[in-house]
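#help-structures
NK: newbie question, is this the right format to request a structure? protein is Pyridoxal-5'-phosphate-dependent protein subunit beta
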Amino acid sequence: MTPTAATSVRPAARPELLALLGRTPVARITAGLPRPHPGFWAKLEGLAAGGMKARAAVSMLMGARERGELRPGAPVVESTSGTLGVGLAFAGQALGHPVVLVADSELEPSMRQLLRSHGVRLEMVDRPAPQGGWQAARLGRLRELLAVLPGAYWPDQYNNPDNSAGYASLAAELAVQLDHLDILVCSVGTGGHSAGIVGPLRRHWPALRLIGVDSTGSTIFGQPARPRLMRGLGSSIHPRNVAYDAFDEVHWVGPAEAVDSCRRLARASFVSGGWSTGAAARVAAWAARVHPGAVVAAVFPDGPHRYLGTVYDDDFTAGHGLDPAAAATRPVEIPHPRAAEAAGWVRCARVTDPLKAAPSSEGKP
């Protein structure tokens, strides 16, 4: 079936689904990650219908409809590593739009089946681009689809301000659920949820500190782009939704640390998730430990089910040389993002936009 044929039938809108958006609980996490810590709050976005990114997906499609960029029943085309795809499937059903997603061969078979079961048309790319890797390859195929799908709309999740705006509801929920908050920990991929919640929360708590959690091999915060095992956080491009000025520090976390944290969470706190959740949880536990008395919260973007064949699979971790028992227990400190390449857990208290940072300043403390 061609992409055009796959989007020729206009689906009926199901606006009643919008009542299921968000409204996720918080849980107190005290599991050692890996060392003891006073505990932190976790916002369990993996329990939401359509996942955390359904908030952004609905916001982007509704914003486009209001501006006349997305006509009723027109197809929506986007690149995804999985999580936004589920959110767009939710938004497409709720608002009545067929959804075509460009994914790559590293997308788990279970996620492919899930997306197709929700009526999504998947377009797969089978090799990374020489420059920009899988993301660039997916975006190249996406542009080809836009040329052949009449009236198709591309949300451009990496650069769309409606992405961030969709998380205002998450901020509002946290402001009700927590009496106070000193430190917020967010994983960073498109930059949407961290940018969307820190502003509203700082109006409640002006001294709130924001810690970003990136993946080793990601270029978002100025590190060199490398092949990445972890999905859902990090990027090989520079998304313009990232609110660099809002971050107080950034941590790069490796896959061994994320795996170790996910498994410890599952054993001791029951709630767990995938790469992004494991990475954010490890940094949140560290923040609670080194800032005694501070109220710390982390956003857990997903649940564990997608990752049963990766994060929770001993054959997978062994095959990729990951030893959770050897995962770092604290970060290595560097003075600026280009001081050293992060091969494992690394922390930097200096955050700059790598597209604006002056090369002459890189050697300064």
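mod (FA): yep, format's fine, and the tokens are attached above. Residues 360-365 have pLDDT under 50 and may be disordered.
NK: thank you!
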